[in-house]
Amino acid sequence: MNERAVDICMIGAGGIVNDAHLPAYRIAGFNVKGIVDRNHQKAVVLAGKFNIPKVYDSLDAMVADQDEHVIYDCALPASEIVGVLQELPDAATVLIQKPMGERIEDARIIRDTAHAKNMRAGVNFQLRFAPSVLEAKKMIHNGQIGTLTDIEIYVNVYTPWDRWSFLFGKPRMEINYHSIHYIDLMRSFLGNPSSIYAKTFRHPDALQLASVKSSMIMDYGDLIRATIHTNHHHDFGYQHQKSYIKIEGTKGAIKMSLGALINYPHGIPDTFEYITIIPGTVPEWKSKKIEGSWFPHAFIGTMEQMMLAKKGMIEQPEHHIEDAYDTMRCVEAAYISSEQGGVSLSSIR
């Protein structure tokens, strides 16, 4: 990474940029050379906070000021992505904020636009790059827990959705804007499932939101269980809030917590525990200290992949647009499954 520098141009100055993108890039030492937002003052504030040298008045002005050694970090609502891609140069390198559209039709248009403009594009599904997840993948790759048999992602928290007012009134919410991370994570471990069973739910105290909790089974055959259960309306204090990823194999297991979601936005420290079965010994759970967390450290991984691909050090980023499109296909399948419902009891005689 110490050859010709790759600079970052930030398109968007919203909360996720302030809370995750820019803190991650500062930790990693990545150079953000410019920022633009329709709300110019928001861009000015972030530029001052993170020492970004230039605030642009428009996207056109930003593009006109760049050479080929730049990555555009497009942190905008899904509805604005295609318009921005069309304004960026052909063959640009761009990191696109998730979700990749509200529906599969939107994802297809984003993908096709990137292809038509010969762009090197990735989508910011960053949970797969969280430090604890990377450690778990290393242990699995090394055979420490054997053949995978079970992956469970469980979230029971209270999320103050009013922090993201744009979500209110959207026809799709919880899976599109939260559980999508877990679907993508499951795919990063196991690949594409053969099918998905899902149901997403509303809450009587949050009827302005299309859904606030979901349950999903991703079908990888009868030798591995892959489940996602989320409840964002556990409004009973944080003492019984939980958020974890549990991975079991034939020789051991890993359980890692996602502390950022507990008592949000304050959070608690992450934990990482594992157990391995060694013949002739009594197995016991052990703890491992993992530096960093999902927010903001995982955002280093998504941008680093874009830089490595741009430098030709890898063929394409792990979260390239075709892989991201498969995550969107799974999201679409989950919504279709939720709408179609289960087997009616009346049909059983």
Walk me through the structure.
With 349 residues, this protein is α/β, with parallel strands linked by helices. The chain has two domains: 7-126, NAD(P)-binding Rossmann-like Domain (Rossmann fold, 3-Layer(aba) Sandwich); 128-287, Dihydrodipicolinate Reductase, domain 2, CATH 3.30.360. It has helices spanning 15-28, 40-49, 59-64, 81-87, 104-116, 131-141, 174-190, 298-310, 321-340, and strands spanning 7-11, 32-36, 54-55, 70-74, 93-96, 120-123, 148-156, 195-201, 213-219, 225-231, 242-249, 252-257, 272-276, 286-287. The chain has an eight-stranded mixed sheet with strand order 8-9-10-7-11-12-13-14. Strands 3-2-1-4-5-6 form a six-stranded parallel sheet, with helices on both faces. Helix 4 (81-87) packs parallel to helix 5 and helix 5 (104-116) runs antiparallel to helix 9 (321-340). The longest helix has 20 residues, at 321-340. It is globular. The N and C termini lie far apart (66 Å). The mean pLDDT is 96.
